[in-house]
Amino acid sequence: MFRTLVAAALVMGVTVTDPHVVTHLDLAAGQQPENLAVEADGSVDATFSFARQIAHISPGGAVHIVGTVPAPPAGTDVPLIHRAFVGGIVRTDDGTLYFLYAAGTSELTGLWRLRPGGVPVRIAALPADSVPNGLALAEGQLYLSDSALATVWRVPLCGGTLVRWRSGPELAAPAGQFGANGLKIRDHAVWVTNFTQGTLLRIPFGGGPIRTVATGLDTPDDFDFAGPDALVATNPTKSLELVHPDGRHESVLTGLDNPSAVVVRGDTAYVADAAYFSADPNLLTVHIGR
After folding, report:
1. By three-state DSSP, how is residue 204 classified?
2. Residue 289: inside a domain, yes or no?
3. Three-state DSSP state, 156
4. CATH number of the domain that 217 lies in?
5. Are 274 and 32 a contacting pair, CB within 8 Å?
6. Per the domain annotation, does 36 fall within a domain?
7. What tens-digit pLDDT sequence spans the chain (290 residues)?
8. Is the dihedral angle over the CA atoms 64, 59, 40, 49 positive or is it negative?
């Protein structure tokens, strides 16, 4: 499945090698991974976007569905996507999962929580025309990107009322296209990709302007940090891009299949291959060398 594998950022001492498929997922069952949270033992909690499911994937690749959110009424049109979609996911140390659901209705769209052994419960509502996508946690606050409303929302971990933390043209896209997408937190800032504008953005916690770190990325989705660099999934361009602090970037792995999520843990990057336009959704790992 890997047409090309390129060692990258040699000047910075970073390489991406040894792709390994952890498990091939069941397309017929709707197992298309959109986002990932990695546990200490190397197991993965994943959102299966259009199946509206949360899954636990063991280090050996066994898949167990731990939760399913309700479907919206038949005929509901979700902005941008046109069907219900489960997006970003975060796991806390007690095993609780927090995840995002775009359902096209004000009754279902928003932030959901799944406690171990429990059932999914919505704890913060978003408007029906919202498409919550990326999700990250810092200092008891959850931050989430909205691909439709050019906004980063914020809400306490306990839930409640979501507030517009930042909005602006840097987070926007033309009507009908994805804007703010992947979201991570690092160095006292929220970092966001803009899918249509092809940018990686840095938004400081203390106020100040949104800074464009990199431009010219081709459909950037989720990302994570590998040392000083960002490892960005480009979906549907089917590659991983390494973005340096000065904005330079290059492909480090191609031949992927709609990579929708990246999580870096130590010297391993976990990548979700959603296969939205083909037939082989999977979870894979690559080795990060520095």
Report:
1. strand
2. no
3. strand
4. 2.120.10.30
5. yes
6. yes
7. 444 434 344 445 578 999 999 999 999 999 999 999 999 999 999 999 999 999 999 999 999 999 999 999 999 999 999 999 999 999 999 999 999 999 999 999 999 999 999 999 999 999 999 999 999 999 999 999 999 999 999 999 999 999 999 999 999 999 999 999 999 999 999 999 999 999 999 999 998 999 999 999 999 999 999 999 999 999 988 999 999 999 999 999 999 999 999 999 999 999 999 999 899 999 999 999 98
8. negative
Residues 240/234, Cβ–Cβ less than 8 Å = yes
- Does the model's pTM come out above 0.90? yes
Is residue 130 domain-resident?
yes
Q: Is residue 223 within 8 Å of residue 238, measured between CB atoms?
A: no
Q: 195 in the Ramachandran plot: left (φ > 0), alpha (ψ -120 to 50) or beta?
A: alpha
Q: What distance in Å separates the CA atoms of residue 230 and residue 194, rounded to the nearest whole number?
A: 14
- Residue 90 belongs to a domain: yes
Q: Is 200 within 8 Å of 191 (Cβ atoms)?
A: yes
Total number of domains in the chain = 1
Q: Side-chain half-sphere of 130: how many Cα atoms within 13 Å? A: 28
- Which residues span the domain enclosing 44? 30-235+258-263
> Could you give the CA distance from residue 76 to residue 275 in angstroms, rounded to a whole number?
24
Q: Which amino acid is at 58?
A: S
